[in-house]
Here is the input.
Amino acid sequence: MPSLVTLISRFISGAALSLLFFHAFSLPSSSAQEATAPPSSTAAKPSTPTSVEEGFPVKDELVISKCGACHAPDAKGNMSRISWIRTIPEGWEEAIKRMVRLNGVPLEPDDARKILRYLSNEHGLAPEEAKPIEYFPEHRMVDEKVPSEDIKRSCVACHALAKPLSWRRSAGDWKMLVNLHVGLYPSVDFLNFQRFPPQPGDPPPPPGTDLRPPVEQALAFLAQSGSLHSPEWSEWHASMRSPRLAGHWLISGTQPGKGKFFGTMEIEAVPSGESFSTKTRVTFPTDGSALTETGKSIVYTGYAWRGRSTSDNAGTAPNDPTVTREVMMLSRDQSQMEGRWFWGAYQEFGMDVAMRRANAEPTVLGLDISALKAGSVGGEVRIYGDHFPADISLADMDFGAGVTVKKIISHTPDLIKVTVDVAVAAIPGKRDVAFQSALAPAAFAVYDRIDYLKVTPETALSHLGGEPHAKGYCQFDAIAYANGPDGKQGTPDDIELGPVKATWKLEEFVATMGDDDVDFVGSLDPASALFTPALDGPSPKRRFSRNNYGDVWVVATFKPAGSDQPVTGRGYLVVAIPQYMRWDQPEVAK
Here is the structure.
């Protein structure tokens, strides 16, 4: 179970301390391989490399005119630092804003947008390079896999590992990044980059232990994982096409607390060819509510959709979107997109979204339900899709072995209502749903019993708030599971059955004597599972009048139909202080 410090550090790394690690342009030098090492640096003194990697020439006159005063081009058209770096749109946006704010670069917003687009297109990442760290621009909170404890200490102690991995640099530029860290924040050298000297009586390290300083291990890892040149970028940059996305698109996805949704997006190109206007409408089958939005978007590097939409019918609840940011990846054939739409002061609310271009053939997007129980009779199911024909029959639909479509209740071009029976002996597991030749893979599950619940997110972070600092909420879900063929919980063959309507409560996570966090951190709605944090303190009712921060268990309880015993699950919630200072970047399509 992650500790309070671990979770707070993980959050801070993703936002509040992003300024600690300048990943481009800062301290420009006359050569892309010439580092400016501060005199105070000790062991973090990487030597100047003896060979120079080929850079990527800058050919855009606007970039040359606005950036060339500090990043002078050479005879090959390479601009110092810029030609030896590649990154995602958010990385280039951060670098441009830093140049304006810290170095006083005079730059009009329209010119900044043009420079951002050029650098993202010509000095970006290939889709294969961006995919592993896509959770970073999507603002997902995940448990990253860090190669070693020394790399964790050197990099992840202050920010997400995805931050440096969202960049590609020459070996020399990676070393200059270390010098920049030490120059701006000298304490990082001793506390994070170097290995503490052994103390008298310490046992010798095990044979084979890598005794290099953590910073040297991190540099070796980054130079290999984040090399400037790659086959993926060479291939993508050569074959990259302008996005042609205008038309009618189909949407499916899920939103924590509200469940599945289905809908459409109308995309219209604007004259630039890579910018678009959008009109979106999605419906939530669980309660029949609908969300309509209008927005604008840009596609960078041939695949990176960055959009911003405003709701036309926003509600008043904290988890109702008003302005939604959209981060998606476009498929190579430009027929599909997937990603996350998010909102909230801490981007804590969001939707997992999949989109596909509509065509003239029938399409099955999914079902309104997530699971059907073996032996159930007459269950009503809604099939969401597109271009369903006027004349349909029971034979057109297939729910897999043991599930029989008994009756068509009604149908429209985008929705079919049917009743189904599930055989008592139906084998538990995921099922595809087909309509004629159209297929929705793993659209629902068949199960014989619910064995346990998982609370999602399993580890979560919320923020106290008030005036002037916004609260950071947290929405939970209870996901039901069956143990699967092996009968054991927590094994790969377990069957996910989707969210269930549980009852919710907070319980104390006992960490100290007299722990009382559950009384002060906030409240959890027993039906909707929306956690609302308390005001930030100090709190006069607490010992030492300390703030309302703390950590608690979030517990869900559900009683399956026909069972005498309820099933429960729990997640771990840290409620931290507000983020008093913020350096993260707003959405790049603004």
About this structure: Confidence is low (pLDDT under 50) at residues 1-51.
